[in-house]
Amino acid sequence: MIAMQKNNKINVELLLTGNELVSGDVIDSNSAFIAQDLGKLGLEVTRRVTVKDDLTLLAQEISEQTKRCDILIINGGLGPTVDDMTSQALAIAANVPIVEHKDAMTSLLAWCQRRNYELNESNRKQAMLPQGCDVIANETGSAVGFTLSLNNCQVYTTPGVPRELKNMLPNEIMPHIQQQFNVTDTTDISRFNLFGLGEATIQELVNEHLPDWPDDIELGYRAAMPHIEIKLTTHDQAGHDKKPLWQTKLANLLGAHVIGDGKMSMAKSLINALDANNKKVTFAESCTGGLISSLITKESGSSSVFEAGFITYSNAMKTKMIDVPESLLIEHGAVSEPVVKAMLTGALKQSGADVGVAVSGIAGPNGGTNDKPVGLVWIAWGDAQVQHTVALLLTIPRTAFQQYVATAAIDLVKRHVLDIVEPPEYLSTRAFKK
Fold first, then answer.
1. pLDDT tens, 8-63?
2. 3-state class of 225 per DSSP?
3. The CA-based dihedral angle spanning residues 279, 316, 325, 311, taken in that order and rounded to the nearest 10 degrees
4. Which residues pair with 145 in a beta bridge?
5. Which residues pair with residue 49 across a beta bridge?
6. Same domain, 303 and 341
7. Among candidate residues 161, 180, 199, the one where a domain is terminated
């Protein structure tokens, strides 16, 4: 067990290796996985360094980082090829020889046997590790990780394959860190998603209605267009115990703008609402080009609530596929209230669905007029008996426009299915006013 850390605080750094990371051919996501798992232990990364596959540079960087931090996690460079240099670089930095590690060879042979592979010299390289290190099991890959102490710093090596890393972190690395550094207080993070409220608005609501928000429950926001993620973080048992109550208070305050926990998508929340009410949905899409239907069908369970959607991008297809009268298109134009109402009516009739949404807009960057500017969208939603319409103006780039319209469409029909009377804030803040 490590009794003292530099500056009396556990200082964690990351070292990422690989030419593909330096060149930008591969986008680093592994450091996010590592940081998130460390965060659960109340630890944070203070520095992240990326180095290309150069033995001298890697050995120098390892030596420098281990002199200033307590934990160094090295990601990548454990494979069988010549550009996998982590073992050799760490041996140079520690001034120890590379040797065939018995436990690493046992693991490698077992991996080959399970796959009916014959061990070759390239694979054998993965069992050649710095003398004195301890193996970290890798249940999903051929290359074990390993750990050793250098300059009073505990070094952990991890595979660059994300699937292998994700398995190793909670099952091997984090338990070792907890034991080695006597980490007792763990961090707990709860997340839930919202749509239709901005960060500033949410904070104002909290300030006004929950002014006694506890200091030991950290409240954070992350914009992930078109959603907002709210994060509640606690670091000790007292905070953990009181968090459920305050999360409920916050969710009640934000009302139907809350989609669900951090894993709940808007589309999945609609599927759940439709399932609970034994209803099916249809979509008539113009400016979103099928995105709404795509979001729904990405989710499991969609087949029980969604049978057909209509991508009627041209005026001719609006008439041919969902019976929009040509006279309405001529008189009012495709982006208009009468047309989206007719699109909704036609889609409901053609599909036999219980509820639906129709959208028609000008995604831009061209095509707008004084009366109908870029960013205008008409949305109609409801059923055969009750239908609603709204015109929104979204002065955002084309892709963001489509994402927002699709999410709003799903949100509005979900509110209709659940009989939520209170309108979302965006119906007023983003309303189109001539």
1. 589 999 999 999 999 999 989 999 999 999 988 889 899 999 999 999 999 999 99
2. coil
3. 10
4. 136
5. 15
6. yes
7. 180
**Cβ 318 vs Cβ 310: under 8 Å:** no
* Structure token digits, residue 18: 């690989």
Is the whole model's pTM more than 0.90, yes or no?
no
Helix (H) or strand (E) holding 250: helix 237-254
Indicate the number of domains in the chain: 3
Query: Phi, psi at residue 158, to the nearest 5°?
Result: -135, 155
Measured on CA atoms in the order 334, 343, 322, 284, is the torsion positive or negative? positive
CA dihedral for 227, 302, 273, 245, sign (positive or negative): negative
Strands 281-285 and 306-311: parallel
Q: How far apart are CA 188 and CA 238, in angstroms?
A: 11
397: helix, coil or strand? Answer: coil
User: Residue 266 gets which letter from DSSP?
Assistant: H
Residue range(s) defining the domain that contains residue 120: 6-180
93 and 143 co-located in one domain: yes
Question: Can you tell me the distance from the alpha carbon of 331 to that of 413, in angstroms, rounded to the nearest whole number?
Answer: 28
Cα dihedral sign for 40, 172, 9, 51? negative
> Which tokens hold the place of 430?
């983003």
Q: Over the stretch 190-206, which tens digit does the pLDDT of each residue have?
A: 999 999 998 899 999 99
